[in-house]
Design goal:
The protein is mostly helical and about 350 residues long. The protein folds into 2 domains: about 110 residues, DNA polymerase, domain 1, CATH 1.10.150.130; about 220 residues, Intergrase catalytic core (hpI Integrase, Chain A, Orthogonal Bundle), CATH 1.10.443. Helix content is about 50%, strand content about 5%. It contains 14 helices and 3 strands. It has a 3-stranded antiparallel sheet, with no helix packed on it. A hairpin with a 4-residue loop joins strand 1 and strand 2. The termini are far apart. The model has no long low-confidence stretch (mean pLDDT about 85).
């Protein structure tokens, strides 16, 4: 142990760290760091008996990785997120002489190898993230193309293909709703064909964004079939690839003013310029927005049948692939229903 280090317990170091970042991070980010670090504190205190952060070594970190993986039965992508939060914490501990310098570099050999499938299986735009993103867009990019894309995706939970299929006439301002039609003969399809055709109600704020997009920013063009697309480029309907790129660009936390969970500096990050937005390790796909939207509606006590119909997804598929509420949330929601009987 270096003589320059100053003794501090793991729990005290964690509290100092969260207090130090209180004015830098949103409450949801602080809560996320608290959750991810509490397991490390438990391991130090209850498993290894580590009372002083000065004693922490690379071998300890390896032992913690193995313990946390097995104790929590974690998937690689979840373990990656928890280890990365710990890496950022350890790097901060170096700045206050709590651990040996460059200890955070040991994480390079610890991080799980993830493929894109691992990441996509757990990708979700959380309610907090969606609200921060939309708050930013409403203030700084109101009724822009990327803004109207996110408003529609989040508030309807539709698939990429459904958004791509929309025409101006599919929006009914008086009824405040969107209509989805399967039109394979004119270039757009719905995943479930004619079974996916439906009407989706909108709230007044989303309607206002759509109307202002149409009036002030939408290019007045037709596609090759003579249809008037709702989401346009200068020449035609915005294609699916460009919709994906737009979503990857704006769901980077640094885009809407949040710290990078991976500790990257935006000035040095490769994912801050086109066409490399998709290389960001923490932004999300259109499908992750759909997953987050469905989870949000369920968390707000919207009945599963209503969510199933609105998002055009079977209830069995919804339960298996889209409902990301944790068990504690589900228990409390069931308690609320039972208490009202």
């Amino acid at each position: 142990m270096s003589e320059e280090l100053e003794p501090i317990s793991p729990a005290e170091a964690k509290e100092m760290y969260l207090n130090a970042r209180e004015h830098e991070l949103s409450q949801s980010s602080l809560d996320s760091y608290h959750y991810r670090l509490k397991h490390f504190i438990r391991w130090c205190e209850e498993v290894e008996g580590i009372e002083n952060m000065n004693d922490l070594s690379g071998r300890d970190l390896q032992r913690y990785k193995t313990w946390r993986r097995d104790d929590g039965d974690l998937k690689p992508v979840t373990l990656d997120g928890q280890l990365d939060a710990l890496r950022v914490f350890i790097r901060w501990c170096e700045s206050i002489d709590a651990v040996e310098q460059d200890l955070h570099q040991k994480f390079k050999a610890l991080m799980p190898n993830l493929n894109r499938g691992d990441q996509q299986s757990e990708d979700i735009l959380t309610t907090d993230e969606a609200e921060m993103l939309l708050e930013y867009q409403r203030k700084f990019e109101y009724a822009s193309r990327s803004h109207v894309i996110i408003e529609i995706l989040w508030h309807t939970g539709i698939r990429l293909g459904a958004l791509h299929s929309l025409d101006v006439d599919d929006y009914d301002p008086e009824a405040e709703r969107l209509e989805f039609h399967h039109r394979p003969d004119s270039g757009t399809r719905l995943k479930n064909g004619s079974e996916g055709e439906r009407m989706v109600a909108l709230d007044a704020d989303v309607c206002r964004v759509i109307e202002d997009w149409i009036e002030y920013h939408r290019h007045d063009v037709e596609d090759e079939y003579g249809r008037e697309p709702l989401i346009t480029t200068r020449n035609s309907r915005l294609n699916k690839t460009n919709i994906r790129d737009a979503v990857y660009r704006v769901t980077r936390p640094c885009y809407y003013g949040e710290d990078c969970p991976k500790g990257r500096d935006p000035d040095d990050c490769e994912a801050t310029t086109y066409p490399d937005y998709c290389r960001c390790p923490v932004n999300v796909s259109t499908h992750a927005i759909r997953r987050g939207s469905i989870t949000h509606f369920l968390t707000e006590d919207v009945p599963e049948k209503v969510v199933s119909d609105r998002m055009n997804v079977g209830q069995d598929v919804l339960d298996k692939h889209y409902d990301k509420r944790d068990e504690e949330v589900k228990v409390e929601q069931r308690r609320g229903y039972l208490n009202n009987i």
